[in-house]
Specification:
single chain, about 230 residues, mainly alpha, two-stranded antiparallel sheet, 11 helices, elongated
């Protein structure tokens, strides 16, 4: 929520946490509603950049009051579930609105504005799909599959290199091994490292513009339909 720079949700979040401290809500209920708020604003605010009118603030304030007035645990849980189903879900951007903005996500040493958001996205997608040891976001580094400092005859633009479709999150040791190796060598090292890698990378013969675009679109679909679903 801090990453998305949102404040409209605070009345409901504070109400939820107050009830949790009073043991009027259980941990699973708190996790569920906070996750729903995070997932909603990921699409609504962080990606689609839709403006939060006064209606969004009023929506959260009203939900906070209704939650506070609910008489027992069952009523409070129903209040939160109704809020997620009837308020958040209908306002979530459609995929047609989400994908174009996601496709524009970029990070490089020259394009640093979206670094924290890109790291957050890569981490969440990795954690959602990985069955092995969880990656530590604080120790992980963002690796460019097609290097930022390519050979003289490289055909990729700086925009392609910075695209989220050209980025993976790895630990420092693996990052050092990947270095500036050729794309095929990097893919082989990723396979041997026993870390989750999406099918576009595993099947690709090269890391050209079409592969980067296809992977970006795959990550967008994975993000919208699975990782940040409502």
């Amino acid at each position: 929520m801090n990453l998305f720079r949102i404040k409209q949700q605070l009345p409901l979040v504070l109400s939820v946490m107050r009830l949790y401290e009073d043991q009027a809500l259980k941990t699973k209920h708190v996790r569920s509603i906070l996750s729903a708020i995070e997932n909603f604003h990921f699409a609504f605010t962080a990606i689609a950049s839709q403006r939060s009118s006064g209606g969004i603030s009023f929506m959260y304030a009203l939900a906070a009051r209704e939650l506070y007035e609910a008489k027992n645990l069952e009523a409070k849980v129903k209040c939160l579930q109704k809020f997620q189903k009837d308020k958040l879900a209908p306002k979530r951007p459609q995929y047609a609105e989400f994908e174009p903005s996601f496709m524009e996500l970029k990070y490089s040493t020259k394009l640093t504005k979206q670094k924290n958001l890109v790291r957050y996205i890569l981490t969440r997608i990795y954690q959602h799909n990985s069955t092995g040891l969880p990656i530590d976001p604080q120790q992980a580094t963002i690796e460019h599959l097609a290097p930022e400092n390519p050979p003289m005859n490289a055909t990729l633009s700086e925009e392609h290199v910075a695209s989220i479709g050209n980025l993976i999150l790895v630990d420092q040791a693996l990052n050092n091994n990947l270095a500036n190796k050729a794309f095929s060598e990097k893919v082989q090292l990723l396979k041997e490292a026993n870390v989750w890698v999406d099918p576009v990378i595993l099947k690709a013969k090269q890391g050209g513009p079409s592969e980067i675009k296809n992977r970006t679109r795959l990550l967008a679909k994975e993000a919208y339909k699975n990782v940040w679903s409502l």
